[in-house]
Amino acid sequence: MDVFNINGYTLDDNQKKAITTEKENVLLIAGAGSGKTSTIVGKIRYLVEYKNIDCNQILCISFTNKCVDNLKNMLLNDYGYNIDVYTFHKLSLDIIKSYSKDISVSDEKLLDYVINEFFYRFVHDKRLLKKDEYKMLINTIKTFINIFKTKNYNIDKFNTILKKIKYSNKYILI
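Given the sequence above, the corresponding structure tokens read:
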């Protein structure tokens, strides 16, 4: 078995070095299209086929969902390896959820949907705003909500800020 050949592509010397290193952790940093995914697949093949490491003992982390999906598919479909492949965010969320079942994190798209639904229902005539102005308003609201959540503010804090704004002509920085 040639772990240096990934789907018909022969890896270069640097990739081979990354695959065969005996270090416990390997960080690959390279530009787009340089073969990072192939190198990771080669490393996993090397660990399984030459080092007899069980697939359940391998954790693979990547930055994007697209890369995670690509790695999972390649490992499973091309080599039959069912390896845990995560983004940093997904792994963190799974770890947190393993300790507390009360954790709930909403998808970024859900926030977009809720804000847009609010405006469709309560701002009947969007034609008051140009398309770019409407987008800017939506992004400003999203930013406000994200900052508010990041600071762990609750509805009471929001009401306090609202009262200050209502009874003052000054801007308030949160």
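The helical segments are 13-20, 36-49, 65-79, 88-99, 108-122, 131-150, 155-166. Try to locate this feature in the token string yourself.
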